[in-house]
Amino acid sequence: MTDVPALRRGLAVLRVLAARPGPISAAAIARELDLPRSTTYHLLAELEAAGFVVHLAAERRYGLGIAAFELGSAYLRHDPLERLAAPLLRKLADRVGHTAQLGVLHGNELLYLVKERPSAPETLVTDVGVRLPAHLPASGLVLLAHLPHAHVRALYPRSFVTRTGRGPTSPAELRQALAAVRSRGWAVEDGQVTADFASVAHAVFDHNGRPLASVAVTFRHVCETGCTRTWPDLAQEAAATAAALTRQVGGKPPPT
């Protein structure tokens, strides 16, 4: 293979992986692209070395790697998404009287792109450009909950950090937290990022029904031991804003 055809084939492999709901075998990729298996394995090895593909050896399948998500997040940090989101978040903050934020995944971190405060703002640690471990804020949890399980495993092989002593500290606890998000329909965190503050978040989706960004509402809430409140009224407001942004970017929610 010369360099240019190899690049085109490598991009074709990434498009195939991006179009599937989960990891697939090298044989399936070879069939879809009408490539020799040896060529397919060579391309996958190069993409894996660069971080764009992850090999799930136990399943004998391949999925998108962390570098692919980072590349997508880099695109999202440009003006279009932020400009579309800002007026929607301003209205959300005014309606609920709390801070509204837009976040995107960057590897296993949550990056805040937009922050809109109400007329009487509350002091928060989060701000535009701030990154947090994605498994702690509701904004990150709701995005992780909509990723394939294999991708979450790749992002979190074993290392977990906490800020306040609350939040998942192991892969098993993270799986449990993400299952609760999927069952409920929105993410909740209580004091996992900042003591005496809680947040709820809904996902924004792209044209393939994949998580693109998250809309969160953060508010003051004092609970010494961590309560079980889920704030459905605030979650409904965040959901309406997330749905509006999904429509504006030409996205669609995933099948239920």
TrEMBL record:
Keywords recorded for this protein, A-Z: DNA-binding, Transcription, Transcription regulation
Family matches, as InterPro entries: ArsR-like_HTH, GAF-like_dom_sf, HTH_MetabolicPath_Reg, Tscrpt_reg_IclR_C, Tscrpt_reg_IclR_N, WH-like_DNA-bd_sf, WH_DNA-bd_sf
Record-linked Pfam families: HTH_IclR (PF09339), IclR_C (PF01614)
Gene3D superfamilies xrefs: 3.30.450.40, Winged helix-like DNA-binding domain superfamily/Winged helix DNA-binding domain (1.10.10.10)
Domain IclR-ED as annotated: residue spans: 67-251
The protein's name in its UniProt record: IclR family transcriptional regulator
Database matches in PANTHER family: HELIX-TURN-HELIX TRANSCRIPTIONAL REGULATOR, ICLR FAMILY, HTH-TYPE TRANSCRIPTIONAL REPRESSOR ALLR
CDD domains: HTH_ARSR
Segments forming domain HTH iclR-type: 4-66
Lineage of producing organism: Bacteria, Bacillati, Actinomycetota, Actinomycetes, Pseudonocardiales
Organism: Amycolatopsis tucumanensis
Superkingdom of origin: Bacteria
